[in-house]
């Protein structure tokens, strides 16, 4: 690619040579072979292009955590610590599972197994690691891609605490966890990486969660500055004008405070991992653009936690949430020097260790007065304790402490306090204690919502927290939607999708069907709504209509694994065993970690009398999910009839 860091005069004379003399004859980005996204996140270019002109910021940004947030595993920098044989190992006692990760010829590999009563490895699952999530400053999470394009998280993580250690990834601490089947959804990817080039509409709720083989590597320039294609086209125009070039890209520092910090808060303001923000109806995961109000993209929710009050809660992503609880924030809000993310952080540069003490001290002293000893004046009138010349204000007033949701790492607490307590207590090991949500609230009362929309956001947050099973919330949501529908106030299909999911979870098939139909009237191509409608028809007794609906869905979305699986269930129910196996085959080949599909195959093979094939399918289900419901019980009689060693199935 031609270097962009050249004068405007060079562009004027260069274009005729490229055949671009006639305005609009050729897209200049195509002429320079600069790819531009065109799907759900249109108008983005490779972030490396920015470095051609902004080399200083580009180079320093590569050392910032955001710049290293997501990388290909192949050839990635190896920061982990391995045993002498080159393998990293961890035994998870609650689930009685062994984990291994190693690097071979620049490629990462993962293995999980258990030991049976004879001490032999069983339930062995092995895969190549495709992507690494996390900068490595605090941790790394490992992902693999299925043949159908799903990204799955692996249970083992690397943490840099205490010189580095292998431990379970967040959410995997207890015995019963998602194992190798935890899907990386577009909502997750939207904050952990630059936007991928996926089809328009595929980032909406209820659509298949698949990704292309090639993905961006790391959060880049355009996450804060907006899509760069228009900026480059203005730069490449026949008569480039400085103001037009500047106007074609967002410079966050020129934005009003609310829009400026909306960029940061879009990913870093997460009051609770138990109840996450709700996207506004009609908004896709990759639809936010710098410069727009954040409240038009998502509604920020908070919780009342029965286990801790607000001041005691400290999650890994609590930077602005804790900052806003600080007197330094509340007492400067509305002033010219109001505290915010950029008061201390330059997003383009990581402050070198040698400079940090003075850097943060100068920021603090820009507001706080000092006495004759050059120490801060205390409100009590007492002299400030002596401070080591290399000490930082943050060491005592914004200490590093262990996070409650990711218990194997520590983070800076952004709630500025006079006395946060003994530092040794703040970093001490702890047991994971998930939030127990007593109520869902709005983080800010004014987020551009009507009272009905605000109530709906809280109800939906509560339903998601309970896996859609909390009947009182579902009843309230149904009544609210009925009232809003009568007033023409229901926006989008998403509320109907939530009600459909809740109705199915509670076996209210009549309600599920009505809600699905209403959602489909707004979004007729939504895959999950179509799937839920087919399920509601089938489970309510109209099996023929349910089957036809599911067949239509599979024809429209052939890689939608859950629809293909459910259609196979319908076919098995009708006694069409071979047709069911044919329907399952693409799942077993492409979405190979779908253990319910392997269990269904085993049941069909057993019914057909092919017990060896059934045994192998059951074993594959156990390799994927050792606690897969009913698999062990259904396998044991087949195992016994085959004369296989019963101890091989026993996990002590």
UniProtKB/TrEMBL annotation:
<dbReference type="Pfam" id="PF09699">
    <property type="entry name" value="Paired_CXXCH_1"/>
</dbReference>
<dbReference type="InterPro" id="IPR036280">
    <property type="entry name" value="Multihaem_cyt_sf"/>
</dbReference>
<dbReference type="InterPro" id="IPR051829">
    <property type="entry name" value="Multiheme_Cytochr_ET"/>
</dbReference>
<keyword id="KW-0732">Signal</keyword>
<dbReference type="InterPro" id="IPR010177">
    <property type="entry name" value="Paired_CXXCH_1"/>
</dbReference>
<feature type="signal peptide">
    <location>
        <begin position="1"/>
        <end position="19"/>
    </location>
</feature>
<protein>
    <submittedName>
        <fullName>Decaheme c-type cytochrome, DmsE family</fullName>
    </submittedName>
</protein>
<dbReference type="InterPro" id="IPR011990">
    <property type="entry name" value="TPR-like_helical_dom_sf"/>
</dbReference>
<feature type="domain" description="Doubled CXXCH motif">
    <location>
        <begin position="340"/>
        <end position="371"/>
    </location>
</feature>
<dbReference type="InterPro" id="IPR019734">
    <property type="entry name" value="TPR_rpt"/>
</dbReference>
């Amino acid at each position: 690619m031609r270097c962009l860091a050249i004068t405007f005069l060079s562009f004027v004379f260069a274009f005729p040579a490229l055949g671009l003399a006639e305005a609009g004859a050729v897209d200049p980005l195509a002429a320079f072979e600069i790819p531009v996204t065109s799907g759900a996140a249109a108008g983005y270019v490779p972030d490396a292009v920015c470095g051609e002109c902004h080399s200083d910021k580009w180079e320093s940004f590569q050392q910032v955590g955001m710049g290293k947030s997501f990388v290909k595993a192949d050839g990635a920098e190896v920061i982990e610590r391995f045993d002498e044989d080159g393998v990293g190992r961890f035994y998870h006692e609650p689930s009685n599972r062994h984990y291994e990760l190693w690097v071979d010829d620049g490629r990462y590999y993962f293995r999980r197994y258990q030991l049976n009563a004879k001490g032999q490895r069983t339930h062995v699952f092995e895969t190549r690691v495709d992507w690494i999530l996390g900068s490595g400053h605090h941790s790394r999470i490992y992902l693999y891609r299925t043949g159908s394009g799903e990204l799955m998280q692996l249970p083992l993580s690397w943490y840099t605490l205490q010189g580095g250690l292998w431990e379970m990834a967040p959410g995997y601490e207890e015995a019963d966890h998602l194992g190798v089947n935890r899907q990386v959804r577009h909502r997750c990817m939207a904050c952990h990486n630059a936007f991928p080039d996926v089809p328009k509409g595929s980032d909406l709720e209820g659509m298949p969660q698949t990704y292309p083989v090639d993905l961006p590597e790391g959060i880049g320039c355009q996450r804060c500055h907006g899509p760069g294609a228009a900026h480059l086209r203005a730069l490449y125009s026949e008569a480039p004008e400085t103001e037009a070039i500047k106007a074609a890209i967002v410079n966050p520092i020129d934005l009003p405070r609310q829009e400026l910090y909306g960029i940061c808060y879009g990913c870093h303001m997460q009051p609770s991992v138990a109840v996450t923000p709700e996207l506004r109806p009609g908004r896709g995961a990759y639809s936010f653009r710098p410069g727009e109000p954040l409240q038009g993209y998502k509604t920020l929710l908070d919780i009342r936690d029965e286990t801790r009050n607000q001041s005691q809660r400290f999650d890994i992503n609590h930077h602005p949430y804790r900052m806003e609880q600080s007197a330094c924030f509340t007492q400067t809000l509305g002033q010219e020097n109001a505290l915010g993310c950029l008061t201390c952080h330059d997003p383009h540069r990581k402050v070198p260790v040698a400079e940090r003490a003075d850097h943060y001290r100068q920021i603090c002293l820009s507001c706080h007065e000092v006495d004759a000893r050059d120490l801060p004046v205390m409100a009590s009138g007492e002299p400030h304790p002596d401070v080591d010349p290399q000490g930082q204000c943050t060491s005592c007033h914004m200490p590093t402490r262990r996070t409650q949701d990711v218990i194997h790492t520590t983070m800076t607490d952004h709630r500025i306090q006079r006395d946060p307590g003994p530092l040794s207590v703040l970093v001490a090991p702890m047991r994971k204690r998930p939030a127990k949500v007593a109520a869902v609230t709005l983080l800010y009362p004014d987020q551009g919502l009507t009272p009905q929309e605000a109530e709906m956001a809280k109800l939906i947050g509560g339903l998601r927290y309970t896996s859609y099973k909390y009947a009182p919330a579902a009843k309230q949501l149904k009544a609210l939607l009925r009232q809003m529908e009568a007033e023409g106030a229901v926006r989008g299909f998403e509320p109907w999708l939530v009600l459909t999911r809740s109705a199915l979870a509670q076996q209210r098939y009549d309600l599920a069907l009505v809600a699905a139909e209403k959602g489909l009237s707004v979004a007729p191509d939504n895959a999950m709504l179509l799937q839920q409608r087919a399920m509601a028809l089938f489970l309510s007794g109209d099996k023929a209509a349910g089957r036809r609906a599911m067949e239509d869905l599979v024809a429209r979305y052939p890689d939608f694994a859950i629809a293909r699986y459910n259609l196979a269930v319908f076919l098995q129910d009708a006694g069409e065993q071979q047709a069911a196996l044919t329907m399952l085959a693409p799942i077993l080949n492409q979405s190979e970690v779908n253990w319910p599909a392997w269990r269904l195959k085993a049941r069909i093979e057993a019914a057909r009398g092919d017990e060896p094939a059934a045994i192998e399918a059951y074993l594959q289900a156990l390799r994927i999910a050792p606690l897969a419901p009913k698999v062990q019980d259904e396998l044991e009689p087949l195992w016994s009839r085959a004369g296989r060693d019963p101890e091989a199935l026993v996990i002590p």
